[in-house]
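Complex record, two chains
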Amino acid sequence: MLRFLFFSFIFSLILISPTNADFIDKKTVKNNQFIATTLDFSQLKTTDNSSIETLFNIDNISPGGYQVNSLRIKNKSETDMNYFLTFGKIDGSDDFCNQLEINLIKDGQSKYQGPLVDLNLNINANNKEDFSDWLIYLKLSDKYVKSKSEFCDFNLNINAFSDPNQKSGFKYKRSILNHISSS
Amino acid sequence: MKKFITSFLIITLLIVLSVGVTKAYFTSSVNNDNNQFSSGTIKVSLTDENNQEYASPAWNISNITPGWNTGSNPSIKTFKVNNIGSLDFKYQLTFNPNVPSGESNNALYKAMMVSYKIGNNDWIDKTLEDLMNDTSITGTVSANSSSQDILIKPYLPTTTGNTAQDGTFNFSLIVKATQTNNPTFNQ
């Protein structure tokens, strides 16, 4: 009997609880979107557009010796892109790396010629699907005096930025491996 | 037995006749006709500065980079909250994500900022994430064709980091209005 009274009381409470019947109206503006851009590029062979992982792989280079390679950098972003070509040492002799010289040629014009270790070249790839074809001369200085077996392993870094001043913003980086040795 | 029944029927008839006498009081009445109770209406519309209903969507912006809409001539949209009902109302305007936050790149809406200005008040800056759930953009509009202007400028700060790259934020802009004395509607 007591149980019956208890459940009857609870049921009564539920029945008499106040309903919320306020007036409400709503309007919706649908399908809005914000999409951030993507920085993306690929480094390719100029012969068949296949990907390049290693650009220079030279053993037994002599003073004054050089090699020429080509490189295509293709902007796959939806936006303009600034990229920097820089040297990044991985391993080897600083003295030997300092004796390497590079000449970067684009559209028949030399964009940088000088010590590899000082490379810091700013390029503006200002169109979607724009690509840059580079001829790259890598040379061991004539003045290099071989005293022992030395090598220089380095990355050719491609750093892309949405902000031309590189202070902030989106960025994207890829690296191409290189190996040069004197023996 | 027959006499008894006859007597009963006669007595019953006499009682009915005695009770059924007419009553002839003086009475008078006046009718107050055509009374009615009618409820008020809450009706809201959202229009642009030219009083045109907002065609969906208000924003469809792609290819956003840090610094977007931060220049000297930014894109600012006007939203007029119009009261076209018969009751004063209070309202909330929210950026409602179309997908659960865990299913999208939430770095973008965490990084994006929204400047807004309600009526003649000062500009206020909040993150887009702030405006998804809380009751920041609110106001009260009196009945019968009054309105309140809200100016909104979304932007991506120049300091935005790389995590927001390739982010997408799909959303609905929702204005919800209710009677001013609705206690369950927070402002």
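Note: The beta strands of chain B are 44-47, 60-64, 77-83, 89-97, 113-118, 124-127, 137-141, 147-155, 168-179.
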